Structure prediction request, 276 residues.
Amino acid sequence: MNPASLVALLQHSAPSGGGGGEHGDPFEHLLPHVVPQPAGYHLFGLEVHNIQLFQVLAVVLVFAAFVGVPRAVRTNGGGFLARSFAGAFLWLRDTVVYPNLGEKAGRRLLPYFVSLFFFITFMNLLGLVPGGATATASAFVTGALASCTLAMMVFGGMLVQGPLTFWKNLVPPGVPGWMAPVLFFLEFIGLLVKPFALTLRLMGNMTGGHLALLSFLGLMLYFGQSSVAVGFAVSPFVVALSAFMMLIEGFVALLQAYVFVILSAIFVGMCLHPHH
Prediction:
């Protein structure tokens, strides 16, 4: 942030005439950025939000990233980026998809899980770009992704095991008859809790980092309310903390994409291969 921008922010948050402050608490101006904001136009009569734009951009980046990857996987050729993404593709295949789904089912579902990983990764990273928005900080986005996992768990399990056998296998064999309904109810609830946990885990981690980063920036504006000089005095500490949080956020962006995908693969694999 250049000095002119910093002065403008401090003056915007500073109280006017020594009163209670014309603009109020600076945190009130910063923290709403963690929720979706209207983009200012409509599509098919529906209001478009900023996170939707960044979701579309993430899809475009996924397609752009994998240009040349098939050739790099087959021949180990191509440019640096193609080989890097090819290595990530093989890593996901050999450490996430095949071990949890088996080679036969894993080969069929591999494109989905690889696309899911990079889709979430790009959405997470786009939130760190100045002016960007993190789509995965919205429960609507993470809930939709978790619903896809739930659909694969239920319909995939019914397709592989059979419609009746899938629900029957929720109860372990050899359970006394009087206990079977209780276990079935608990297992059914557990089936629904898994995608719910995926939703909250990804949303909570992506939202928490942004709240911490915006809170650090808010400290500079808060102290600057009394004096612009005080705001500049604390700015080195705020910038240092913010830079550290940005590094942490970059790591968390990749980690949370991996956690979401590997848990999804584990949950789907449990439904496709219940005896394992």
About this structure: Residues 80-126 form the longest helix (47 residues).
